Amino acid sequence: MLMIFSAWALMFITTFLAPPKHLWALITAQGFFITFFSISWTFLQDFNFSHPLFFMDKISAPLAILTCWLFPLTMLASQSKMRLEPIARQRTYITNSTFLQFTTLLAFTASDLMLFFIFFEASLVPTMIIITRWGTQERRLEAGMYLAFYTMLGAVPLMIWLTKFYTTHGSLCPTFTHTMHITQAAMNCPGLFWATCNTAFLVKLPMYYFHLWLPKAHVEAPIAGSMILAGTLLKLGGYGILRTSPLLQEVTLNQTLFIMLIAILGILATALLCLRQTDLKSLIAMSSVSHMIIVITAALVSSPWSYSGAMAMMIAHGLTSSALFCLANTSYERTNSRTMILLRGVMLILPLAGAWWLIIALFNLAIPPSINFAGEVLIMVSLFNWSPVAFLIVALNLIFTTAYTLYVLWATQRGPLPKHIKTLFPCLIREHLLLLLHISPGFLLILKPELLFCI
Ligand SMILES: *[C@@H]1O[C@H](CO)[C@@H](O)[C@H](O)[C@H]1NC(C)=O
Predict the structure, then answer these.
(1) What b/e sequence results for 268-286 when a residue is b if at least 16 CB atoms lie within 10 Å of its CB, and e otherwise?
(2) pLDDT of 154-166, one tens digit each?
(3) Sign for the pseudo-dihedral over CA of 91, 94, 97, 100
Protein backbone atom coordinates (compact mmCIF):
# COMPACT_ATOMS: atom_id res chain seq x y z
CA MET A 1 0.00 0.00 0.00
CA LEU A 2 2.69 2.44 1.05
CA MET A 3 4.62 1.44 -2.04
CA ILE A 4 1.79 2.51 -4.25
CA PHE A 5 1.47 5.79 -2.44
CA SER A 6 5.16 6.49 -2.77
CA ALA A 7 4.89 5.64 -6.46
CA TRP A 8 2.21 8.31 -6.70
CA ALA A 9 4.46 10.78 -4.92
CA LEU A 10 7.29 9.95 -7.32
CA MET A 11 4.96 10.89 -10.11
CA PHE A 12 5.29 14.56 -9.16
CA ILE A 13 9.08 14.34 -9.26
CA THR A 14 9.00 12.65 -12.65
CA THR A 15 6.81 15.39 -14.00
CA PHE A 16 9.32 18.06 -13.15
CA LEU A 17 12.52 16.22 -13.97
CA ALA A 18 11.53 14.37 -17.11
CA PRO A 19 13.02 15.77 -20.31
CA PRO A 20 10.32 17.43 -22.42
CA LYS A 21 10.69 14.91 -25.21
CA HIS A 22 9.90 11.88 -23.07
CA LEU A 23 7.57 13.54 -20.60
CA TRP A 24 4.33 11.91 -21.69
CA ALA A 25 5.87 8.51 -22.32
CA LEU A 26 7.45 8.44 -18.88
CA ILE A 27 4.32 9.62 -17.11
CA THR A 28 2.11 7.12 -18.88
CA ALA A 29 4.54 4.31 -18.19
CA GLN A 30 4.67 5.20 -14.54
CA GLY A 31 0.89 5.35 -14.44
CA PHE A 32 0.66 1.84 -15.84
CA PHE A 33 3.20 0.71 -13.28
CA ILE A 34 0.97 2.00 -10.48
CA THR A 35 -2.06 0.34 -12.04
CA PHE A 36 -0.21 -2.93 -12.27
CA PHE A 37 0.61 -2.86 -8.59
CA SER A 38 -2.81 -1.72 -7.53
CA ILE A 39 -4.27 -4.82 -9.17
CA SER A 40 -2.44 -6.81 -6.51
CA TRP A 41 -5.08 -5.52 -4.09
CA THR A 42 -7.46 -8.07 -5.58
CA PHE A 43 -5.37 -10.80 -3.96
CA LEU A 44 -6.12 -9.52 -0.46
CA GLN A 45 -8.54 -11.71 1.41
CA ASP A 46 -11.93 -10.04 0.92
CA PHE A 47 -10.02 -6.85 0.09
CA ASN A 48 -9.47 -6.34 3.78
CA PHE A 49 -6.65 -4.04 4.62
CA SER A 50 -6.18 -1.87 7.64
CA HIS A 51 -3.49 0.39 8.86
CA PRO A 52 -3.79 3.39 11.19
CA LEU A 53 -4.09 5.64 8.16
CA PHE A 54 -5.46 3.48 5.38
CA PHE A 55 -8.41 1.22 5.31
CA MET A 56 -9.94 -0.84 2.57
CA ASP A 57 -12.79 -3.26 2.35
CA LYS A 58 -15.15 -4.56 -0.27
CA ILE A 59 -16.77 -1.19 -0.82
CA SER A 60 -13.66 0.89 -1.23
CA ALA A 61 -11.11 -1.42 -2.84
CA PRO A 62 -12.80 -1.81 -6.26
CA LEU A 63 -13.21 1.94 -6.47
CA ALA A 64 -9.59 2.51 -5.45
CA ILE A 65 -8.45 0.12 -8.17
CA LEU A 66 -10.69 1.90 -10.66
CA THR A 67 -9.03 5.20 -9.73
CA CYS A 68 -5.57 3.76 -10.31
CA TRP A 69 -6.74 2.17 -13.53
CA LEU A 70 -8.14 5.34 -15.02
CA PHE A 71 -5.11 7.50 -14.28
CA PRO A 72 -2.78 6.29 -17.07
CA LEU A 73 -5.76 6.29 -19.40
CA THR A 74 -6.40 9.97 -18.81
CA MET A 75 -2.76 10.62 -19.58
CA LEU A 76 -3.03 8.59 -22.79
CA ALA A 77 -6.14 10.47 -23.78
CA SER A 78 -4.91 14.01 -23.26
CA GLN A 79 -1.59 13.70 -25.05
CA SER A 80 -2.46 14.91 -28.49
CA LYS A 81 -3.98 18.21 -27.40
CA MET A 82 -1.53 18.92 -24.60
CA ARG A 83 1.63 18.31 -26.60
CA LEU A 84 0.95 21.52 -28.49
CA GLU A 85 1.14 23.65 -25.37
CA PRO A 86 4.25 25.17 -23.77
CA ILE A 87 6.17 22.70 -21.66
CA ALA A 88 5.56 24.46 -18.35
CA ARG A 89 1.84 24.32 -18.91
CA GLN A 90 2.04 20.64 -19.77
CA ARG A 91 3.82 20.02 -16.49
CA THR A 92 1.26 21.90 -14.39
CA TYR A 93 -1.50 20.06 -16.21
CA ILE A 94 0.04 16.72 -15.35
CA THR A 95 0.66 17.65 -11.72
CA ASN A 96 -2.85 18.93 -11.33
CA SER A 97 -4.43 15.81 -12.74
CA THR A 98 -2.10 13.57 -10.75
CA PHE A 99 -3.02 15.51 -7.66
CA LEU A 100 -6.70 15.10 -8.45
CA GLN A 101 -6.48 11.36 -8.88
CA PHE A 102 -4.29 11.05 -5.83
CA THR A 103 -6.73 12.89 -3.55
CA THR A 104 -9.54 10.75 -4.91
CA LEU A 105 -7.56 7.62 -4.15
CA LEU A 106 -6.78 8.88 -0.65
CA ALA A 107 -10.47 9.61 -0.11
CA PHE A 108 -11.37 6.05 -1.05
CA THR A 109 -8.75 4.54 1.23
CA ALA A 110 -8.94 6.90 4.22
CA SER A 111 -9.36 5.15 7.54
CA ASP A 112 -11.45 7.84 9.12
CA LEU A 113 -14.60 9.49 7.87
CA MET A 114 -13.24 12.93 8.66
CA LEU A 115 -10.16 12.24 6.54
CA PHE A 116 -12.47 10.99 3.83
CA PHE A 117 -14.38 14.22 4.05
CA ILE A 118 -11.22 16.31 3.80
CA PHE A 119 -9.99 14.53 0.68
CA PHE A 120 -13.49 14.54 -0.74
CA GLU A 121 -13.45 18.32 -0.56
CA ALA A 122 -9.80 18.60 -1.58
CA SER A 123 -10.56 16.96 -4.90
CA LEU A 124 -12.67 19.99 -5.73
CA VAL A 125 -9.66 22.30 -6.09
CA PRO A 126 -7.76 20.50 -8.86
CA THR A 127 -11.04 19.75 -10.66
CA MET A 128 -11.82 23.43 -10.72
CA ILE A 129 -8.33 24.32 -11.87
CA ILE A 130 -8.46 21.76 -14.67
CA ILE A 131 -11.86 22.92 -15.85
CA THR A 132 -11.25 26.64 -15.65
CA ARG A 133 -7.71 26.65 -16.92
CA TRP A 134 -7.70 23.99 -19.62
CA GLY A 135 -11.30 24.17 -20.70
CA THR A 136 -11.75 25.32 -24.25
CA GLN A 137 -14.65 27.74 -24.14
CA GLU A 138 -15.43 30.91 -22.34
CA ARG A 139 -18.30 29.43 -20.30
CA ARG A 140 -15.79 27.39 -18.35
CA LEU A 141 -15.62 29.97 -15.55
CA GLU A 142 -19.34 29.64 -15.04
CA ALA A 143 -18.99 25.86 -14.98
CA GLY A 144 -16.29 26.16 -12.35
CA MET A 145 -18.49 28.40 -10.21
CA TYR A 146 -21.40 25.99 -10.43
CA LEU A 147 -19.18 23.10 -9.46
CA ALA A 148 -17.67 24.91 -6.48
CA PHE A 149 -20.87 26.32 -5.07
CA TYR A 150 -22.94 23.18 -5.41
CA THR A 151 -20.26 21.06 -3.79
CA MET A 152 -19.45 23.43 -0.96
CA LEU A 153 -23.04 24.14 0.00
CA GLY A 154 -23.73 20.43 0.15
CA ALA A 155 -20.72 19.79 2.34
CA VAL A 156 -21.71 21.94 5.31
CA PRO A 157 -24.38 19.67 6.85
CA LEU A 158 -22.15 16.65 6.40
CA MET A 159 -19.34 18.29 8.31
CA ILE A 160 -21.65 19.28 11.15
CA TRP A 161 -23.01 15.78 11.34
CA LEU A 162 -19.56 14.16 11.32
CA THR A 163 -18.38 16.45 14.11
CA LYS A 164 -21.48 15.72 16.15
CA PHE A 165 -21.07 12.02 15.58
CA TYR A 166 -17.49 12.13 16.71
CA THR A 167 -18.29 13.97 19.90
CA THR A 168 -21.02 11.52 20.86
CA HIS A 169 -19.43 8.24 19.79
CA GLY A 170 -15.73 9.03 19.93
CA SER A 171 -14.76 7.47 16.64
CA LEU A 172 -15.31 7.80 12.93
CA CYS A 173 -13.56 4.66 11.81
CA PRO A 174 -15.60 2.79 9.18
CA THR A 175 -15.05 -0.65 10.77
CA PHE A 176 -16.04 0.58 14.16
CA THR A 177 -19.24 2.05 12.84
CA HIS A 178 -20.10 -1.21 11.08
CA THR A 179 -19.94 -3.34 14.19
CA MET A 180 -21.45 -0.88 16.60
CA HIS A 181 -25.14 -0.89 17.08
CA ILE A 182 -26.17 2.70 17.03
CA THR A 183 -29.07 3.79 19.08
CA GLN A 184 -30.16 7.19 18.01
CA ALA A 185 -32.54 9.29 19.97
CA ALA A 186 -35.96 9.51 18.39
CA MET A 187 -36.04 12.32 15.89
CA ASN A 188 -38.81 14.36 14.43
CA CYS A 189 -38.04 13.81 10.78
CA PRO A 190 -35.50 11.05 10.22
CA GLY A 191 -36.01 11.23 6.48
CA LEU A 192 -35.11 14.89 6.41
CA PHE A 193 -32.13 14.14 8.63
CA TRP A 194 -30.95 11.50 6.17
CA ALA A 195 -31.32 13.89 3.28
CA THR A 196 -29.45 16.76 4.93
CA CYS A 197 -26.59 14.58 6.08
CA ASN A 198 -26.23 13.11 2.65
CA THR A 199 -26.63 16.31 0.64
CA ALA A 200 -22.91 16.41 -0.05
CA PHE A 201 -23.07 12.97 -1.62
CA LEU A 202 -26.36 13.56 -3.36
CA VAL A 203 -24.90 16.65 -5.00
CA LYS A 204 -21.80 14.78 -6.04
CA LEU A 205 -23.56 11.76 -7.49
CA PRO A 206 -25.66 13.83 -8.66
CA MET A 207 -29.26 13.48 -7.58
CA TYR A 208 -31.92 14.87 -9.88
CA TYR A 209 -32.47 18.58 -9.02
CA PHE A 210 -28.86 18.86 -7.90
CA HIS A 211 -27.46 17.80 -11.22
CA LEU A 212 -27.24 21.13 -13.02
CA TRP A 213 -23.53 21.53 -12.47
CA LEU A 214 -22.64 18.24 -14.10
CA PRO A 215 -23.48 18.80 -17.79
CA LYS A 216 -21.86 22.23 -17.58
CA ALA A 217 -18.70 20.87 -16.02
CA HIS A 218 -18.48 18.04 -18.52
CA VAL A 219 -19.06 20.21 -21.55
CA GLU A 220 -16.36 22.67 -20.56
CA ALA A 221 -13.77 20.28 -19.16
CA PRO A 222 -10.84 19.01 -21.21
CA ILE A 223 -10.80 15.29 -21.88
CA ALA A 224 -8.91 14.26 -18.75
CA GLY A 225 -11.32 16.34 -16.66
CA SER A 226 -14.35 14.66 -18.19
CA MET A 227 -12.89 11.21 -17.79
CA ILE A 228 -11.98 11.74 -14.16
CA LEU A 229 -15.31 13.39 -13.38
CA ALA A 230 -17.35 10.58 -14.88
CA GLY A 231 -14.97 7.85 -13.87
CA THR A 232 -14.09 8.52 -10.28
CA LEU A 233 -15.37 11.80 -8.86
CA LEU A 234 -19.03 10.85 -9.13
CA LYS A 235 -18.18 7.59 -7.39
CA LEU A 236 -16.98 9.51 -4.35
CA GLY A 237 -20.61 10.39 -3.74
CA GLY A 238 -21.78 6.83 -4.19
CA TYR A 239 -19.04 5.58 -1.93
CA GLY A 240 -19.98 8.14 0.71
CA ILE A 241 -23.63 7.10 0.69
CA LEU A 242 -22.82 3.41 0.93
CA ARG A 243 -20.26 4.07 3.63
CA THR A 244 -22.36 6.26 5.89
CA SER A 245 -25.63 4.40 5.53
CA PRO A 246 -24.90 1.98 8.41
CA LEU A 247 -24.59 5.06 10.62
CA LEU A 248 -28.10 6.08 9.73
CA GLN A 249 -29.55 2.64 10.22
CA GLU A 250 -32.63 3.80 12.04
CA VAL A 251 -33.94 5.47 8.93
CA THR A 252 -36.29 3.16 7.13
CA LEU A 253 -37.28 3.36 3.54
CA ASN A 254 -40.71 4.72 4.35
CA GLN A 255 -39.21 7.86 5.79
CA THR A 256 -37.12 8.56 2.73
CA LEU A 257 -39.96 7.81 0.39
CA PHE A 258 -39.94 11.33 -0.95
CA ILE A 259 -36.29 11.13 -1.99
CA MET A 260 -36.95 7.76 -3.54
CA LEU A 261 -39.80 9.24 -5.53
CA ILE A 262 -37.64 12.08 -6.86
CA ALA A 263 -34.88 9.64 -7.67
CA ILE A 264 -37.13 7.28 -9.59
CA LEU A 265 -38.79 10.04 -11.56
CA GLY A 266 -35.37 11.63 -12.05
CA ILE A 267 -34.10 8.48 -13.74
CA LEU A 268 -36.89 8.72 -16.27
CA ALA A 269 -36.59 12.48 -16.70
CA THR A 270 -32.86 12.43 -17.39
CA ALA A 271 -33.19 9.52 -19.80
CA LEU A 272 -35.85 11.48 -21.67
CA LEU A 273 -33.71 14.61 -21.61
CA CYS A 274 -30.94 12.65 -23.29
CA LEU A 275 -33.17 12.14 -26.28
CA ARG A 276 -33.35 15.90 -26.79
CA GLN A 277 -29.66 16.78 -26.53
CA THR A 278 -27.76 18.05 -29.51
CA ASP A 279 -24.40 18.26 -27.83
CA LEU A 280 -22.62 14.93 -27.64
CA LYS A 281 -20.77 15.60 -24.40
CA SER A 282 -23.78 16.92 -22.55
CA LEU A 283 -25.74 13.87 -23.68
CA ILE A 284 -23.13 11.58 -22.18
CA ALA A 285 -23.17 13.68 -19.00
CA MET A 286 -26.96 13.37 -18.77
CA SER A 287 -26.73 9.65 -19.26
CA SER A 288 -24.28 9.48 -16.36
CA VAL A 289 -26.78 11.34 -14.21
CA SER A 290 -29.40 8.78 -15.14
CA HIS A 291 -27.11 5.89 -14.31
CA MET A 292 -25.91 7.34 -11.05
CA ILE A 293 -29.44 7.99 -9.78
CA ILE A 294 -29.98 4.25 -10.03
CA VAL A 295 -27.16 3.96 -7.51
CA ILE A 296 -29.07 6.31 -5.20
CA THR A 297 -32.19 4.15 -5.39
CA ALA A 298 -30.04 1.12 -4.64
CA ALA A 299 -28.56 2.83 -1.59
CA LEU A 300 -32.05 3.76 -0.41
CA VAL A 301 -33.34 0.22 -0.72
CA SER A 302 -30.24 -0.86 1.24
CA SER A 303 -30.28 -4.61 1.03
CA PRO A 304 -27.09 -6.62 0.48
CA TRP A 305 -28.12 -7.29 -3.10
CA SER A 306 -28.78 -3.68 -3.88
CA TYR A 307 -25.40 -2.72 -2.40
CA SER A 308 -23.65 -5.25 -4.60
CA GLY A 309 -25.64 -3.95 -7.53
CA ALA A 310 -24.62 -0.41 -6.71
CA MET A 311 -20.96 -1.40 -6.62
CA ALA A 312 -21.16 -3.23 -9.93
CA MET A 313 -23.06 -0.31 -11.43
CA MET A 314 -20.48 2.23 -10.27
CA ILE A 315 -17.52 0.30 -11.62
CA ALA A 316 -19.29 -0.44 -14.90
CA HIS A 317 -20.41 3.14 -15.29
CA GLY A 318 -16.93 4.45 -14.49
CA LEU A 319 -15.45 2.43 -17.32
CA THR A 320 -18.24 2.89 -19.85
CA SER A 321 -18.86 6.58 -19.54
CA SER A 322 -15.16 7.34 -19.46
CA ALA A 323 -14.86 5.35 -22.69
CA LEU A 324 -17.76 7.28 -24.21
CA PHE A 325 -16.02 10.55 -23.37
CA CYS A 326 -12.86 9.27 -25.05
CA LEU A 327 -14.82 8.44 -28.16
CA ALA A 328 -16.49 11.82 -28.14
CA ASN A 329 -13.03 13.31 -27.80
CA THR A 330 -11.67 11.42 -30.80
CA SER A 331 -14.43 12.94 -32.92
CA TYR A 332 -13.91 16.30 -31.32
CA GLU A 333 -10.20 16.35 -32.04
CA ARG A 334 -10.92 15.67 -35.69
CA THR A 335 -13.84 17.98 -36.33
CA ASN A 336 -13.60 20.49 -33.48
CA SER A 337 -17.30 20.13 -32.91
CA ARG A 338 -19.46 18.39 -30.37
CA THR A 339 -22.69 18.89 -32.22
CA MET A 340 -23.93 15.49 -33.20
CA ILE A 341 -25.51 16.56 -36.43
CA LEU A 342 -22.13 17.68 -37.75
CA LEU A 343 -20.52 14.34 -37.00
CA ARG A 344 -22.80 12.21 -39.14
CA GLY A 345 -21.54 9.35 -41.24
CA VAL A 346 -18.13 9.00 -39.66
CA MET A 347 -18.43 5.24 -39.86
CA LEU A 348 -17.57 5.37 -43.55
CA ILE A 349 -14.30 7.10 -42.84
CA LEU A 350 -13.34 5.52 -39.53
CA PRO A 351 -14.81 2.01 -39.54
CA LEU A 352 -12.80 0.74 -36.58
CA ALA A 353 -13.90 3.68 -34.47
CA GLY A 354 -17.43 2.76 -35.56
CA ALA A 355 -16.88 -0.70 -34.10
CA TRP A 356 -15.77 0.85 -30.82
CA TRP A 357 -18.84 3.07 -30.77
CA LEU A 358 -21.02 0.00 -31.22
CA ILE A 359 -19.32 -2.02 -28.49
CA ILE A 360 -19.33 0.81 -25.98
CA ALA A 361 -22.92 1.78 -26.77
CA LEU A 362 -23.91 -1.83 -26.14
CA PHE A 363 -22.13 -1.73 -22.81
CA ASN A 364 -23.88 1.52 -21.97
CA LEU A 365 -27.29 -0.01 -22.53
CA ALA A 366 -26.25 -2.99 -20.37
CA ILE A 367 -26.15 -5.82 -22.84
CA PRO A 368 -26.45 -9.17 -21.08
CA PRO A 369 -23.26 -10.73 -19.98
CA SER A 370 -21.66 -7.36 -19.23
CA ILE A 371 -20.96 -6.10 -15.74
CA ASN A 372 -23.38 -3.21 -16.35
CA PHE A 373 -26.08 -5.80 -16.78
CA ALA A 374 -25.11 -7.58 -13.58
CA GLY A 375 -25.40 -4.33 -11.66
CA GLU A 376 -28.72 -3.41 -13.19
CA VAL A 377 -30.23 -6.83 -12.56
CA LEU A 378 -29.21 -6.83 -8.92
CA ILE A 379 -30.66 -3.38 -8.37
CA MET A 380 -33.87 -4.17 -10.26
CA VAL A 381 -34.41 -7.36 -8.29
CA SER A 382 -34.07 -5.58 -4.98
CA LEU A 383 -36.33 -2.78 -6.21
CA PHE A 384 -38.95 -5.31 -7.22
CA ASN A 385 -38.76 -6.82 -3.80
CA TRP A 386 -39.52 -3.43 -2.32
CA SER A 387 -42.23 -2.25 -4.67
CA PRO A 388 -43.32 -3.61 -8.06
CA VAL A 389 -44.51 -0.17 -9.14
CA ALA A 390 -41.07 1.34 -8.65
CA PHE A 391 -39.67 -1.60 -10.54
CA LEU A 392 -41.99 -0.94 -13.45
CA ILE A 393 -40.97 2.71 -13.67
CA VAL A 394 -37.29 1.89 -13.60
CA ALA A 395 -37.87 -0.84 -16.17
CA LEU A 396 -39.37 1.81 -18.40
CA ASN A 397 -36.05 3.58 -18.10
CA LEU A 398 -34.36 0.64 -19.80
CA ILE A 399 -36.34 1.39 -22.92
CA PHE A 400 -35.33 5.03 -22.89
CA THR A 401 -31.70 4.14 -22.23
CA THR A 402 -31.76 1.91 -25.26
CA ALA A 403 -33.46 4.63 -27.24
CA TYR A 404 -30.94 7.34 -26.52
CA THR A 405 -27.96 5.05 -26.92
CA LEU A 406 -29.18 4.05 -30.35
CA TYR A 407 -29.85 7.71 -31.06
CA VAL A 408 -26.19 8.51 -30.33
CA LEU A 409 -25.09 5.65 -32.50
CA TRP A 410 -27.24 6.71 -35.41
CA ALA A 411 -26.58 10.39 -35.09
CA THR A 412 -22.83 10.01 -35.06
CA GLN A 413 -22.21 6.99 -37.26
CA ARG A 414 -24.88 6.69 -39.90
CA GLY A 415 -26.26 8.94 -42.53
CA PRO A 416 -24.84 10.76 -45.51
CA LEU A 417 -21.38 12.17 -45.15
CA PRO A 418 -21.44 15.96 -44.79
CA LYS A 419 -19.09 17.83 -47.13
CA HIS A 420 -16.88 19.25 -44.42
CA ILE A 421 -15.54 15.96 -43.09
CA LYS A 422 -13.59 14.62 -46.00
CA THR A 423 -10.20 15.20 -44.44
CA LEU A 424 -10.12 13.34 -41.18
CA PHE A 425 -6.88 11.82 -40.03
CA PRO A 426 -7.22 8.13 -39.21
CA CYS A 427 -7.54 6.66 -35.73
CA LEU A 428 -4.22 6.23 -33.97
CA ILE A 429 -3.04 3.11 -32.20
CA ARG A 430 -2.97 5.16 -29.01
CA GLU A 431 -6.71 5.72 -29.31
CA HIS A 432 -7.45 2.07 -29.98
CA LEU A 433 -5.32 1.08 -27.01
CA LEU A 434 -7.15 3.59 -24.86
CA LEU A 435 -10.55 2.17 -25.73
CA LEU A 436 -9.36 -1.40 -25.41
CA LEU A 437 -8.11 -0.68 -21.89
CA HIS A 438 -11.48 0.78 -21.00
CA ILE A 439 -13.43 -2.16 -22.25
CA SER A 440 -11.22 -5.08 -21.26
CA PRO A 441 -11.85 -4.79 -17.49
CA GLY A 442 -15.55 -4.80 -18.31
CA PHE A 443 -15.09 -8.08 -20.14
CA LEU A 444 -12.78 -9.58 -17.54
CA LEU A 445 -15.06 -8.75 -14.64
CA ILE A 446 -17.78 -10.82 -16.29
CA LEU A 447 -15.61 -13.83 -15.51
CA LYS A 448 -15.24 -12.94 -11.85
CA PRO A 449 -18.08 -10.65 -10.79
CA GLU A 450 -17.88 -11.66 -7.15
CA LEU A 451 -14.98 -9.20 -6.81
CA LEU A 452 -17.59 -6.47 -6.72
CA PHE A 453 -20.16 -8.11 -4.51
CA CYS A 454 -20.20 -6.89 -0.96
CA ILE A 455 -22.46 -9.51 0.54
C1 LIG B 1 -2.24 23.44 -10.74
O2 LIG B 1 -2.10 24.44 -11.71
C3 LIG B 1 -1.80 25.74 -11.21
C4 LIG B 1 -1.73 26.66 -12.36
O5 LIG B 1 -2.93 26.75 -13.00
C6 LIG B 1 -0.51 25.71 -10.44
O7 LIG B 1 -0.23 27.00 -9.92
C8 LIG B 1 -0.59 24.71 -9.33
O9 LIG B 1 0.64 24.59 -8.68
C10 LIG B 1 -0.99 23.36 -9.87
N11 LIG B 1 -1.25 22.46 -8.77
C12 LIG B 1 -0.50 21.42 -8.52
C13 LIG B 1 -0.89 20.57 -7.39
O14 LIG B 1 0.48 21.17 -9.15
Answers:
(1) bbbbebbeebebbbbbbbb
(2) 999 999 988 988 8
(3) negative
**CB neighbours of residue 86 within 10 Å:** 8
Atom of ligand 1 nearest to the CA of 98: 13
Q: In angstroms, what is the span from residue 332 Cα to ligand 1's centroid?
A: 26
Which residue out of 95, 103, 128 has the highest number of ligand 1 atoms within 8 Å of its CB and is therefore the one to mutate?
Answer: 95
Q: What pTM was computed for the model? A: 0.93
Rounded CA gap, 362 and 368, in Å? 9
122 lines ligand 1 (CB under 6 A): no
In this prediction, residue 271 carries a pLDDT of 93
Give 256's DSSP letter: G
- Amino acid, res. 235: K
| Confidence tier at 75 by pLDDT (50, 70, 90) | very high
φ/ψ of 49, rounded to 5, equals: -150, 125
Are 451 and 61 in contact by the 8 Å Cβ rule? The answer is: no
The CB of 81 under 6 Å from ligand 1? The reply is no
Q: Is the peptide bond before 206 cis (omega within 30 degrees of 0)?
A: yes
Task: Tell me, using a 6 A CB cutoff, whether residue 99 lines ligand 1.
Answer: yes
Polymer length of the chain = 455
166-193 pLDDT tens trace: 888 777 776 655 555 555 555 677 788 8
The pLDDT of 207-228, averaged and rounded, is 92
Q: Quick check: CB of 96 below 6 Å from ligand 1?
A: yes
Helix (H), strand (E), coil (C) string for 282-323? HHHHHHHHHHHHHHHHHHHHCCHHHHHHHHHHHHHHHHHHHH
In this prediction, residue 104 has a pLDDT band, given cuts at 50, 70 and 90, of: very high
Closest CA to 236 of 348, 135, 120: 120
33 pLDDT above the threshold of 60: yes
Q: 37 and 7 in contact (C-beta within 8 Å)?
A: yes
